[in-house]
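Hi C.,

You asked whether I'd gotten around to modeling the 315-residue construct. I have! Everything is below, sequence then structure, no commentary in between.
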Amino acid sequence: MKSELNRNYSALTEFILLGFRTSTEIQILLFLLFFFIYMVIIVGNISMIVVIKVDFRLHTPMYFFLRNLSYLDLCYSTVIAPKTLANFLSKEKKISYNGCAAQFFFFALFVGTEGFLLAVMAYDRFSAICSPFHYTVRMSQQACVQLVTGSYICGCINSIIQTGFTFSLHFCGENRLDHFFCDVPALIKISCVDTFVNEIVLFILSALIIITTTTIILVSYAYILSTVLKIPSTQGRSKTFSTCSSHITVVSLFYGTVFFMYAQPGAISSPEKNKIIAVFYTLIIPMLNPLIYSLRNREVKNAVKRMLLRRIALQ
């Protein structure tokens, strides 16, 4: 029996992504919708990266982290969107075994890194508001690079462990994934062996990441709120806290989705609910993040205006 399992496992070379099982007309409409969202993601995040890079006024720690956030949003949506778009127009919605493993690895890497980066950004706002006199020392260029590098290292460790455990499973010839990309719940569901250990390890790992990063964020904002409330003028409190409003919105969207996924057991067991949550997680949030920072941040809006005026002047 064991040799038969190993034989079937080694024979599996591809997966079929069932995706959204709808009519051809709906598939075309979904393709157009996803294509529009992906174009907004590309334009929005690349614009944010370019604006921050070009405008020297934005060469500060906060915008250094924001530029990396835009890069991560661009990367992990690109891991998912092109293959999803191709499958909308294809009858054979296939992905190779190695391609599936690579897709999951990079998705877990970039999403995990983003979680840690959002915690770093909260710490940056805490340092700027609660310890302004020590801010330049705490958030030196070297410190900022180390914090971002550390986020990537933590994201990479998470990705290696999750990918290793997930793709060590046996599938016994079953290769139909009821999802639009290679994700853990869909892969675990089609495994023909006991997945209890995998589920426990992955749950503990995810819980550790969520608890660690959310604790940093909540503690940082607790100190920020305490400091802001001590400011005597209403205008001063509003101005100080406004520098955090965009980050709070982005964190709420990102972790709100994560908590919804893990707080609703039915959503994990229901493929259709899982797909809807995954669309928000993989595409909607990367689309909204640059819009939130550009529309709610006066410095970014002014930088965009200056860049447009320079282009007009050159013409």
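If it helps when you're writing up: The CA atoms of residues 32 and 85 lie 9 Å apart.

Thanks,
B.
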